[in-house]
Amino acid sequence: MPPRAKRLSASQVGQYAFCARAWWLGSVEGRKPVDFGAIEGGVRVHERHGWRVTLARAVHRLALWMLVGAGAALLIWGATALLSR
Q1: pTM higher than 0.90 for the full model?
Q2: How far apart are CA 14 and CA 9, in angstroms?
Q3: Could you tell me if 23 and 15 are in contact, meaning their C-beta atoms sit under 8 angstroms apart?
């Protein structure tokens, strides 16, 4: 019979979703966090990074829409230039 799988708590799943490395160090390696100030700083860094990723995605979408608009404007301009000859 295979060994029984260890059950994970909801907080462990949340910790894994937030930072898989931290979950692994705590749950598998049995290490405990030492410097809670550094942990709080790490949380702030992760949050800031998340906002930067969100902003980068929004700017990327805006750039794509602007490119599509510029292409459409160029096609319209070219068509009107050809038809006005």
Answers
A1: no
A2: 9
A3: yes
